[in-house]
């Protein structure tokens, strides 16, 4: 017996529709109804309910004691829920599913094929320099039928040359270093030390800072490398203090930066300390205490998620209040997930519902500058959409001040 076109299309596909059909009672009933109609009637087969747009997130939901991946998920899901409530795109809803890579490259490589089984249209905001380096160096995206919207971190090696299917929303690490160096220059800083982790993000960070520092008037920029253990960090912190630099930039994973700052304070370094955006204020306060965290400057690549000055902030907060009411305090990673979802949805609308990587890539590049309520994204000149940066400082109560 030959199946009608709708059922042929249904059983030719795997993943999201199969999952939807077996997990939702209404869709199970619809499937049975259509199956009966197609097998017993010579009339044209009625159309099935449209399947979801599937989006995947692979990230360190365990293994990294920082809220990056869970907060990104919460922000993205809140926006997808808002779009779904308004009818979706082309009448199809968004479904976000997550996989845990435990913050290591092997975990990411194992999770990616599982994600692809569900035929997602995009991978959203993967986290970790090791995972992203593996994605690019081993060419795992070449034959993957999706695009990647945003990535954490913003290391230069992930962007130059990067990959044509990988689109970065957040500003690069170089943009953050430029903001830090400019911040130091306004404070009269001319000597600088970098305490960096024995990872690509740390080694590349030192190289970038040493290259850029003379252009901002710095007369000395040195570095100390450390493994992520107490003994190594303690020795590096003493070395940094002995160098007597006016300011220190710490570079590495979120927990490394928090532990490094604690060791610097314990070693008696009480001058300016700056960190990359991946370090959250709550994590630093937990590790170093309010006294140790006070005055630490953290570069930011997105506006204050709890601020009031931009339409984006009001829109984001309203979406979170409505669709993620359990979240009471918003982080930059919540906003990053929300914006990643918004950029993807806008690209899908511009592609008129064509989810192919080619169509979504063309939609992103041809859109020109897009204004998301005061935060602008532009992929017309390359695969990095934003260079927005700002400095924030932790106050005496452990809160971020922008």
Could you provide a short overview of the structure?
With 402 residues, the protein is of the alpha/beta class. The chain has helices spanning 5-12, 16-23, 25-40, 68-85, 105-117, 129-137, 173-186, 200-212, 230-243, 254-266, 281-293, 311-323, 332-350, 357-366, and strands at residues 53-59, 94-100, 122-124, 147-149, 166-167, 191-197, 220-226, 247-251, 272-275, 297-300, 369-371, 376-378, 390-394, 400-401. Helix 9 crosses helix 10 (254-266) and helix 10 (254-266) packs parallel to helix 11 (281-293).
Which terms would index this structure?
14 helices, alpha/beta, disordered N terminus, Leu-bd, 5-stranded parallel β-sheet, Rossmann fold, signal, 45% helix, Peripla_BP_I, ABC transporter substrate-binding protein
